[in-house]
Structures are given as C-alpha cells and as structure tokens.
C-alpha cells in the first residue's frame, strides 16, 4: 500500500523533470516544450522508507517517456549522478528525488515484481481526516508468478547503471533493462514488466529482467 498526502509540492515533479529530462541521452521530443503527465503508478517499498513511482510523461507531441523516480527523506550515498533535484513537500518536508535507475531499492522491488507477477500498489490518499483509495492511471504487471525465482538484488549497493535506451541496471543476480520510450507490446515471452494506460489496450513492455 502506498500512503500519499495531498499537499503542495514546490517545485512540482514536472517542473523538476523539465530541467533534467531534456538532457538525458534517451530524451525524445521538442526540448523547448513543456512536459505533460501521461500516467503514473506506485510500488511499495517493503521497508516503507522510499517512495517509488513509475511515471510516464511526454514532451509536447513527442513519444511517451518512461521515467521511474524514487523519493527519499535524506540523500542516497553515492547516487549524486542520479539526483534529479529536491522538492519541498507540505507534509513530508524536503524530499530528494532520484532517477530510480540509480536507486538499489527500486532495482530490488522491480525485480521482485517481475519475478512474482506483482502489480502496482494500492494508493491511499490522505485528505483532511479521510483516507480514500485512488485509482491508478497506470496498470502494471510482472510476467512471473507467486514464489517464482530467486531473491532479487540487495537493498544497498551492488548495482551498476549504463545509461541509454534501454537503461541497463546490472545487479549481482542479473540485469534490469528499463525501456525509456515504451511502445512494443508484450509478446508473451521473457521476464518483463508491462503497463497499460488510457488509450493503450495491449500491455506495453516497460522493463525486462535478464538472468
């Protein structure tokens, strides 16, 4: 379960990404166009310490871009190259926002979701004195099944990232390939994470797990 707070965030995630995303090697779309949110969903960090969001955005009329992010209450040691920036959250205070490719918690959670056939987290939004369930705009699914495969990569260290499309996250137990411009439908083969969002009826591959 992902517990979210309705609060002001400055700068917003899209504003933060607007100063970072156009300079990635895999960026596609007009560089001077503003970013729009296409869809998003959350994963659970079992330890409850790190926010994990799978975010799809678009620059102008460019293609959909896959930009997973992690949110932390303190800097992640050794991950300065993956820092997108910081935001001020009206409830949680300063949040350090990272390209999730460089966050070992994301690597561990993503591998586990793919191996076990997991899905996005249930999102519960705190509004005043109420807690309401929010429907995700992005439906995620791993291709595996419950109890499938060996343990994923550890929570700290042990990853090596190669930028590009796909972005490759090397771990001690295999590699994760993040598709940055997702468009290929899932053919039913391989260990993958797929997503569906408004206007997309056939699940599209967002990430692959290679042993």
TrEMBL record:
The keyword ATP-binding applies. InterPro entries: Mak_N_cap. Residues 20-103 form the Maltokinase N-terminal cap domain. It comes from the Bacteria. Keywords: ATP-binding, Kinase, Nucleotide-binding, Transferase. Transmembrane segments: none annotated. GO terms for molecular function: ATP binding; kinase activity. NCBIfam families: CG0192_rel. This is Maltokinase N-terminal cap domain-containing protein.
């Amino acid at each position: 379960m992902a517990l979210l707070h309705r609060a002001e965030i400055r700068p917003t995630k899209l504003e933060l990404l607007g100063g970072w995303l156009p300079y990635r090697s895999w960026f596609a779309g007009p560089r001077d166009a503003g970013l729009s949110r296409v869809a998003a969903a959350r994963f659970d960090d079992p330890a409850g310490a790190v926010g994990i969001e799978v975010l799809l955005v678009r620059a102008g009329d460019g293609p959909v871009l896959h930009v997973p992010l992690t949110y932390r209450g303190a800097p992640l040691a050794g991950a300065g190259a993956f820092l997108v920036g910081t935001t001020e959250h009206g409830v949680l205070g300063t949040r350090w926002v990272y390209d999730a490719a460089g966050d070992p918690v994301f690597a561990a959670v993503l591998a586990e979701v793919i191996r076990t056939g997991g899905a996005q987290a249930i999102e519960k939004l705190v509004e005043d004195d109420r807690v309401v369930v929010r429907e995700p705009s992005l439906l995620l699914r791993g291709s595996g099944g419950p109890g499938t495969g060996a343990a994923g990569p550890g929570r700290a260290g042990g990853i090596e990232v190669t930028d590009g499309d796909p972005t490759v996250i090397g771990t001690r137990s295999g590699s994760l390939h993040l598709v940055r411009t997702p468009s290929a439908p899932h053919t039913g083969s391989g260990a993958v994470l797929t997503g569906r969002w408004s206007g997309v009826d056939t699940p599209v591959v967002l990430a692959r797990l290679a042993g």
